[in-house]
């Protein structure tokens, strides 16, 4: 099982292939935002990688990050936990002014990744 380390929270074992956004909310109990429900459109699920950043990303993630001119961060809803990683959660419910974190993302990445591109 991959090990997920969340800065200032702790270390957690997660099921291989689990979406990072779900590992953060379910395993680490972090109030990670995911306003679009994990569809890779809103960028509220941003994280920074301290170690173990995947070297590929879905087309949806790449397109969204480029459109918003964001760098140095990744979308946790578009990443699978398939290796050990250490992250810093950027977008949390606390202090956001939002009523809730968003609809629970599905277990599978949305939209389904049909193509992977180098980041």
UniProtKB/TrEMBL annotation:
Disordered, as annotated region: 93-119
Keyword Transcription: no
GO function terms (MF aspect): iron-sulfur cluster binding
Ligase in keyword set: no
Keywords: FAD, Flavoprotein
Domain of life of the source: Bacteria
Residues covered by the 2Fe-2S ferredoxin-type domain: 2-93
InterPro entries: 2Fe-2S_ferredoxin-like_sf, 2Fe-2S_ferredoxin-type, Beta-grasp_dom_sf
Biased segments, Basic and acidic residues type: 95-109
Signal sequence bounds: none
Protein name per the record: Na(+)-translocating NADH-quinone reductase subunit F
Taxonomic source organism: Gimesia fumaroli
Classification lineage: Bacteria, Pseudomonadati, Planctomycetota, Planctomycetia, Planctomycetales
